[in-house]
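User: I'm putting together notes for a lab meeting next week and I want to include a structural view of one of the chains we've been expressing. I don't have a solved structure, so I'd like a prediction I can at least talk through. The sequence is below, exactly as it appears in our construct file.
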Amino acid sequence: MLHQVLNAVIKLTSHNDLEALDNCLVEIIAELVPTEKVELIHFYFDNERKTIANTLQIFFSPNKDTHTCGFLKGSDISVAILGCVTANFPVLAPLSDNQWHFILPIKTNNKVEGCISLTSTIDLNSHREVIESLVNIYANHLTIINESERDELTDLLNRKSFNKRISRLLDVQREEQNRRSREKIPVNRRKVDSEEKSAWLAIIDIDHFKLVNDNFGHIYGDEVLLLLSHKMKENFRHSDLPFRFGGEEFVIVLEPIAAKNAAMVMERFRAEIEQFEFPRVGKITVSIGYSKLGTDDFPPHVKEQADKALYHAKENGRNKVFKYESLIESGALNATNNDSAIELF
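Assistant: Thanks for the context. Below is the predicted structure for the 345-residue chain, given as structure tokens.
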């Protein structure tokens, strides 16, 4: 057993990708512990950590050797799991005469980040030490990965984490689409199109930021960046992905939302910044360009489209929001087919 545990630790700590790390944890627990079902759930809290804003579930069935990954609604979270997270205390209790439930909180930086939930036909108390040890190792490694993916100044996701985070978001979307196609019969196509939701990628750039640094110094320039990042956390959902790409350029990736709502969210953020009074610096504005991010799209290509919309905003007065697709439809921009030719050498 010791040899198996050591191999599991080596396997677990060999990953530097969040998705691979999550999948590895549920798999090795299923290998070492007699269980019918393993669930790893990440919780996304509001700013004051009073309510759960969103959850990401990684589900593994040893018998079927299958993973599923998707976002849960609040109503889908069991009372036992909510109690475990709220009390920050493990739960080991019988579900029925032949089923046991073991739930263990996962903490990073002394805060509950999620939980691992196991369903078994036996009392798992004898396996508790092994499970807790593996979860603690996972949590420590998760902390290291999270810190490496954060911008030091703003604590937003950094540029190098962009591809990995986007890939995971699109994987979850594909899983959700597949689930819906299995569970639902297609309805009137026009109605589906009108309610279609997708992810959106936006580039946010501070207008005339160089003047802030030149006139007030880099200390106040950094304070503007910090306050802007705080505004991003306040205005966007906790399950959206905010990045600092460097300098005064930020990227936000919205999880699936209707086009009209995406436009409203972008405009609301632009107006929020325009109305805010930055200490000593006073008023600043931002320009925003954004584009649709579909499950079959190439993220760098979508970022390039958002960048063109941003450049259009900069050229047309700044302090504006433009959607790439709308600019193409209106003829303000010309579409280019970046996928028509691929150069290998």
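A couple of points you could mention at the meeting. Residues 2-148 form a domain with the Beta-Lactamase fold (CATH 3.30.450.40). The two ends are 51 Å apart (CA to CA).

User: Perfect, that's what I needed.
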